[in-house]
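Project standup — Tuesday

K.O.: blocked on the structure for the chain from last sprint. Re-posting the sequence here as requested.
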Amino acid sequence: MKTDFLLAIKQLHSDKNLDDEVIFGAVERGMAAAVKRRYELPGNVLVSIDRYDGSMSVASELEVVEIEEDIEDPDLQIELDRARKIDPQANIGSTLRQDHDIEGVGGRIEAQTAKQVVLQALREAEREAVFAKYSGEEGGIISGDVQRVEPHQVIVELADHTETVMPAPEQVRMERYRSGQRVKAIMVEVLRANKGPQIVISRSRPEFVRRLFELEVPEIMRGVVEIRGVAREPGHRTKIAVWSRQSGVDPIGSCIGMRAMRIQNIVNELHGERVDVIQWDRDPRLFVEHALSPAQILAVRIDRETNTAECAVPDMQLSLAIGREGQNARLAARLTGFRIDIKPQTVAERMQQEGRGPFAPQEEIEIEPEPLPEPEPVRAAPQPERPAAEAPAPQPVEIPTPSAPSEEPELVEEEPELEPALQATELAPAARDEGQIRFGEELLRREEEQQAQRDRRRRRPRYHEVDEGLEDDPYAEYMEYEEEF
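H.V.: unblocked you, prediction finished:
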């Protein structure tokens, strides 16, 4: 019986993914409630279960007071005289612990009480474990399966059977969800509720696109490429501004990837939503110009007082710069933080005559260049140590004496007049080897033969005489080449 009890504890640990001590504590509280109800024990009843053999011990604790008139709760307090009959060392203010020998918990009612207490304790422990696991994961990407679709929310179940909620404002209006569908989302917040922690997820926030880029582009994860801003209209279009912190790295190319594989994976996850990757610039005029792409911008004038950017575009590209229902201009305004006023070229030129508009002169904007971080030095991989070669044995050095003259005549250090390189090689003391001389002569002879062949090819006539007269033989030239080689 005790073995079955321990096996049941292990099974709960596996099913609920809870710590063994949490489960034992819940069972002990449930058993204490059942014992107190069955035997009507005074004081605070404590049940302790042995972790190895499953045996159970029961004890009650009472607070010791001086006289009977000081007792406020007879169920939790005892007077000093009665306490010393049980424990002679009891003192005022101490806790009297009394062990009880109990063979069984009781009948059906006591068992039902213990069951309810245990289940309630397990549910609370489960909720606390879920809250502790996800409370610090706000802003992270999660994946799960759609469990059910309700009128105002979608319930998504994670891999550990934790339920998350995607409310209607956090959904993409153009997306349709079905039961069993695999979805990705960003975790927004973890809330405490009566029925347990409530995890809110979203697919419509701009941070979701930012996190997708961080997961898909390694340069962003390493910090080489930085995302400076994201503007999004869920389901339609997104503009994201990127900037490279390291010279020589193309931020737009890094986000798009080879053959557009990286950006295509992100677009597929967004179910076909259009994503524009633009270059961020410290100059606000260039940044506004990039944000309004793909339209051609002729001039940009920044007004710091009103936080307005006046832009001039060709007359034929006015609708392209504004976008469908003003979408391109809205996203550019959110991305740059300016109120963008787009004017056609003809209107801007008329305004220029009045000294205003995009073409009007403006004060130079002071732009402080941001220092680029120095790239980390690349450390070469450690090479395996090679055994050191044995040093050659020292050779005896003969020191000539003044009385013993050298047999070879002493060379006079004069620069000889040498015109050909071969002649200098022959006269050099280190080039007296006959093999080297023959090699040099052979090189010269081979070069002369090649030059002669080139001269013959240039002088070769295109036509040759035959008995019938002058005829053009197109293959004769190739036949002569074969004879030469």
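K.O.: great, moving the ticket to review. The longest strand covers residues 56-65. Residues 108-134 form the longest helix (27 residues).
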